[in-house]
């Protein structure tokens, strides 16, 4: 079945944060800007997912939910097929979302005043998850070498030499810089954390969105020792555009960790799936692979279109070529704006809403993040707006 990713779908006035909160997020004059910011797609989910949700809706009774064995098996089969990792049913826990899970984990496993390492520029909710639970952020910034970000292991070794450092949150693949970490990089990070008794929480929600030539390695799949010292957070949300259904999977091989996590979920009365999230997850993992393969092909074409466009028509902005995710990190430092002025320029002059680089930490100042999971005509319009604004500076 050929999927039509070129179709423009009107999402306004339909409970969309991306579209309906433009003025709230970007100011009262942002109503008509083109939203290319938050990480959801402008594409309908796979047809089997839509049909499964329709069937559940037509049933007409929306009572308390139960997770059937088929739900767990769909997750197990998907992870093994796509990422060559054999997970077990009794490792699988639930969360409404990955960010929610990160908050539960910080609250359950460490105390106020403890420290958590992150690797900025990084997904900005990480900052709130740590600080809102009374803990302290320790930055292990990524290094930009020849338009490619790498981990600073020497800095990491210095930072973990502190008994108050208890957790490292790994973003893999990395949002916003698009790195798909190589196995050797993950091994070095994992060994440093093991040596210093630092738990690794691996956010792998973008694991299925990979560009040609790249392969995701689940952190916990590398060794039994890494599996016992980590918790993996994943979901079908980015893969199949299901973020609004509030269904994520948390993988915890360590029995003690699993029990602690389950206890915090129980204490918050948050251990039940949404009925539509249940059926959507199972349908996506069982019947969505053909759709995903077509999506990846389309995203690859969008990436090549964007790379060529910036190189030929907006050379003042440099593109950090991603290896995974559908989020592209743009180096706008040559434009010479402050962080605040760069945001105002994109909104008021270019009329596009992007994610501000400084949201991802001070290391992101001078950068912007653009979402290319959209029809090509939509992407082209956004790039034309940026080109028009930049070339009159």
Structure description:
With 393 residues, the protein is α/β, with parallel strands linked by helices. The chain has two domains: 17-46 and 289-390, Aspartate Aminotransferase, domain 1 (Alpha-Beta Complex); 62-287, 3-Layer(aba) Sandwich (Aspartate Aminotransferase, domain 2). Helix content is 41%, strand content 15%. The protein has 15 helices and 15 strands. The protein has helices at residues 17-20, 22-26, 47-59, 69-83, 98-109, 125-131, 153-159, 183-195, 224-228, 237-240, 255-267, 275-287, 289-313, 339-350, 376-390; strands at residues 34-35, 92-95, 115-118, 136-139, 143-145, 148-150, 165-171, 199-203, 230-234, 248-251, 318-320, 327-331, 352-353, 355-356, 367-371. The strands form four sheets. The protein has a seven-stranded mixed sheet, sandwiched between helices. A four-stranded antiparallel sheet has the order 11-12-15-14. Strands 1-13 form a two-stranded parallel ribbon. Helix 6 (125-131) links the parallel strand 3 (115-118) and strand 4. The mean pLDDT is 97.
């Amino acid at each position: 079945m050929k999927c039509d990713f070129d179709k423009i779908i009107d999402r306004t006035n339909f409970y969309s944060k991306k579209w309906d909160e433009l003025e709230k997020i970007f100011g009262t004059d942002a109503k008509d800007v083109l939203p290319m910011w938050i990480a959801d797609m402008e594409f309908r989910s796979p047809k089997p997912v839509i049909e499964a949700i329709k069937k559940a809706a037509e049933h007409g009774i929306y009572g308390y939910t139960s997770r059937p064995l088929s739900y767990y098996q769909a997750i197990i089969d998907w992870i093994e097929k796509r990422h060559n990792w054999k997970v077990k049913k009794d490792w699988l826990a639930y969360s409404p979302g990955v960010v929610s899970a990160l908050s539960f984990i910080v609250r359950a496993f460490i105390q106020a005043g403890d420290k958590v390492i992150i690797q900025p520029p990084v997904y900005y909710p990480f900052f709130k998850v740590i600080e809102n639970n009374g803990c302290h952020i320790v930055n292990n910034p990524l290094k930009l070498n020849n338009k490619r970000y790498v981990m600073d292991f020497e800095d990491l070794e210095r930072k973990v030499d502190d008994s108050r450092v208890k957790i490292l949150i790994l973003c893999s693949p990395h949002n916003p810089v698009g790195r798909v970490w190589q196995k050797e990089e993950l091994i070095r990070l994992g060994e440093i954390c093991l040596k210093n008794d630092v738990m690794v929480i691996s956010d792998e929600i973008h694991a299925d969105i990979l560009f040609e030539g790249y392969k995701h390695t689940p952190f916990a799949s590398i060794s039994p020792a890494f599996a016992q010292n980590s918790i993996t957070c994943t979901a079908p949300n980015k893969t199949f555009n299901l973020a609004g259904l509030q269904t994520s999977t948390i993988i915890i091989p360590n029995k003690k960790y699993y029990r602690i996590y389950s206890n915090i979920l129980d204490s918050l009365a948050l251990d039940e799936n949404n009925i539509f999230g249940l059926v959507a997850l199972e349908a996506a993992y069982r019947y969505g692979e053909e759709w995903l393969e077509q999506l990846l092909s389309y995203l690859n074409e969008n990436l090549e279109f964007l790379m060529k466009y910036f190189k030929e028509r907006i050379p003042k902005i440099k593109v950090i070529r991603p290896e995974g995710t559908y989020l592209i990190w743009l180096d706008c430092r040559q434009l010479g704006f402050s962080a605040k002025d760069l945001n105002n320029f994109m909104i008021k002059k270019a009329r596009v809403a992007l994610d501000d680089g400084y949201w991802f930490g001070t290391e992101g100042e001078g950068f912007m993040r653009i979402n290319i999971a959209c029809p090509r005509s939509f992407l082209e319009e956004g790039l034309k707006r940026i080109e028009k604004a930049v070339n009159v500076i």
